[in-house]
Each structure stands twice: as C-alpha cells, then as structure tokens.
Amino acid sequence: MEETSLLRQSMCRAKGGAPGFKVAILGAAGGIGQPLAMLMKMNPLVSVLHLYDVVNTPGVTADLSHMNTSAVVKGFVGQAQLDNALTGMDLVIIPAGVPRKPGMTRDDLFNINAGIVRTLCEGVARCCPNALVTLISNPVNSTVPIAAEVFKKAGTYNPRRLLGVTTLDVVRANTFVAEVLGLDPRDVNVPVVGGHAGVTILPLLSQVKPPSSFTPEEVAYLTDRIQNGGTEVVEAKAGTGSATLSMAYAAAQFADACLRGLRGDAGIVECSYVASQVTELPFFASKVRLGRGGVEEIMPLGPLNEFERSGLEKAKKELAESIHKGVSFIKS
Ligand code: NAD
Ligand code: LMR
C-alpha cells in the first residue's frame, strides 16, 4: 500500500505535478544560462523548469534531468518552440544575448541585445503575460525599458512584474566591503542603487550593515571596484566573455527571493532596477519588497552623504540617456 502511494507520488512528480513554481530560462545554454539552470534545478520551490535557447538546449536538458531533485526539466530550441517554452510560466529569467569583450561598454551590446530582448518579451506577452520577468541581458539600464515598452504595446504591462537583475552588484559590494572590514561576506549588506553600468552603479556605503565607517580612501577604492567589477572580470577573461558563474549565483539568489515572495513569505527585500518614483527617472534600482504581486513596495533611498549625493547626480544623467534609448528603440 505504502509502495503504491510512493510510486504514485513519483509519477505525479515526473508529470510536473509537484507543488512549486514553473520557471523558464531564456538563453539557458549560455555561460550564465547553464549554471543558473543547474541552481534552479536544485531549488525546491521549482516544480517545472523550461530551458529555452536558440542552440544546445537538448544536451543541457538531458544532462540536468539526471539530477535527483524534484523539478522536471524540459528543453526548447529555436524560435518555433518559444511559445511552448513560455506557456504557463510563473517566472521568466532572461540571460539571452551577447556578452562584452575587453574595451566594450555594456551599451555597445545594445544593437544586438535590444532585438533579442524585444522578441523574447513579445513571447512573454503572448504566452505568460502574468509571469514575473527578471532581465539579466545587458545593457540592463536599457533592456528593462525595452521590455516595458513591448508589454505596453501588447497591453500586458504590469510594472510590478518586471525586474532588472542588479543582484551581482550587491554580491560584489558585500564581498569587497567584507574584505576591507575583515568580516564574513554573508554578514554584510550593502544597498546598491541606480542602475547596472559604470557610474550608474551607486553603492551606499553610508548604509552598510552592520553599521561601519570607512576612510575617504576606502570609499574611493570600494566605489571604484564595485562600479567596475564587471570590467574586472571581462578583462580577466580576455575576450572569452563576462561574469557567468558569479552572475548565475546572483541570479539564482534573486530568483529564489522572487519565488519566496510569490509564495507569500514576508520581509523579502532585494535591490532591483524597476519602474520607480524614487527619483524623477521612470526606472531606478533600489531596495524593493517582493511579494505575491511581484514588487509590493519600493523603499526610499534613505539619507545620503555628500559623496553619494554627487554620485547620484552622475548616475541619473547616464541613466536618463540609457532609458531614453531603450524606449525609443520600441517607439520609433
Ligand atoms: P553567452 O553568450 O555565454 O550566452 C548567451 C546565450 O544567449 C547563448 O546561449 C545564446 O545562444 C543565447 N541567445 C542568443 N540569442 C538568443 C535568442 N534570440 N533567444 C534565446 N537565446 C538566445 O553570454 P552570457 O555570458 O551568458 O551573458 C548573457 C547576457 O547577460 C549578456 O548580455 C551579458 O552582458 C549579461 N550579463 C548581465 C549581468 C547582470 O548583472 N545583469 C551579469 C553578467 C552578464
Ligand atoms: C557584470 O556586471 O559582470 C555584467 O554586467 C557583465 C559585464 O559586461 O560587465
């Protein structure tokens, strides 16, 4: 009797019947996509994991499907399979697109990645308009406005359900600040606001937890290292790509927070680049509280010191241009 019941449970799981959320990764065969897919396959909140890419998802899917975790993995390859990959999804994670090479800015990726993000978001609007969408593809400062315009055009836009992933900036900030303070990075929390490129990445070192003070030299060193963490990796990889493993770790952490929010857990707060009224700009990264509806609350920036206020002005100037570029790409 007990054996029959166990068999039924496992058959139910094999059909995707385990409780949990349905998650799609678009760009799942890439440098970020593969380790992120593995981390999501390990997440007990995921019952179904759809892996979509224009290449190589059958192999990645076969490989991951042998892991003895409950998420059921299905692969989809090529644009003809995009709609099947997206139908019924609760969370869509998008790392599709080209990465930087040394000497490039994230904005240099716009011409290729803008079109990729548009096509994928048109699919989301058609097939899972209520899904939470988390965008990793660069330049995030422009791709999030692009996604918003695609959803507006389709009549499906819900600003609470579109989030740009800036978690890697927080992960880096926590690591570098912990090194300076001689602490375990897991015990450090640095809010990073603004956006995800160069001077738009604004760490608020005056608000570090646990409360800490830094010399002007430490502030200059930390701000520069956090703002240029991506470039540090791009240069070290010497033409073979940008951050993939730390990004997959950060994206999996952010996706887990989104899923816990959707489940109704209380007190889930993460930094993310979202539609915002925290500044005069239509999009801005700051701490947001996640819940059943996606972004439930956008936290104010809190008190900034003079160095941070001046950084904020520089960040806003560049962000305004990147947002305008993204919006114009769809409108014109
Ligand atoms: P990658 O080249 O290793 O992988 C990208 C994947 O996207 C490839 O498998 C490719 O086949 C796929 N792809 C291309 N066009 C597609 C389409 N139309 N539909 C679906 N999939 C498509 O690159 P990567 O290192 O994984 O980086 C991906 C993106 O993430 C880049 O734009 C990079 O700049 C960005 N990134 C963002 C952050 C962040 O903090 N937000 C961090 C690191 C990288
Ligand atoms: C990062 O911050 O690592 C990513 O945005 C990739 C890049 O191009 O730097």
UniProtKB/TrEMBL annotation:
Q: Which InterPro entries match?
A: L-lactate/malate_DH (IPR001557), Lactate/malate_DH_C (IPR022383), Lactate/malate_DH_N (IPR001236), Lactate_DH/Glyco_Ohase_4_C (IPR015955), Malate_DH_AS (IPR001252), Malate_DH_type1 (IPR010097), NAD(P)-bd_dom_sf (IPR036291)
Q: Which reaction does it catalyse?
A: (S)-malate + NAD(+) = oxaloacetate + NADH + H(+)
Task: Say where the protein is mainly found.
Answer: other
Query: What EC number(s) are associated with this protein in UniProt?
Result: 1.1.1.37
Record Pfam families = Ldh_1_C (PF02866), Ldh_1_N (PF00056)
Start and end residues of each Lactate/malate dehydrogenase C-terminal domain = 166-329
- UniProt record, GO biological process: glyoxylate cycle; malate metabolic process; tricarboxylic acid cycle
Q: Which UniProt keywords apply?
A: Glyoxylate bypass, NAD, Oxidoreductase, Peroxisome, Tricarboxylic acid cycle
- Annotated ranges, domain Lactate/malate dehydrogenase N-terminal: 22-164
Where does this polypeptide localize? Peroxisome
Q: Which residues are listed for substrate binding in this entry?
A: R100, R106, N138, R172
Q: Which residues are noted in the entry as NAD(+)-binding?
A: G27, A28, A29, G30, G31, I32, G33, D53, N113, I136, S137, N138, M247
Q: How would you classify this enzyme at the top EC level? A: oxidoreductase
**Which molecular-function annotations from GO does this UniProt entry contain?**
L-malate dehydrogenase (NAD+) activity
Please give the GO cellular component terms listed in this UniProt entry: chloroplast; peroxisome
Q: Which residues form the active site?
A: H196 (proton acceptor)
NCBIfam families given for it? MDH_euk_gproteo (TIGR01772)
Record note on quaternary structure: Homodimer.
Per the record, the similarity remark reads: Belongs to the LDH/MDH superfamily. MDH type 1 family.
The protein's name: Malate dehydrogenase
- State the organism of origin: Carex littledalei
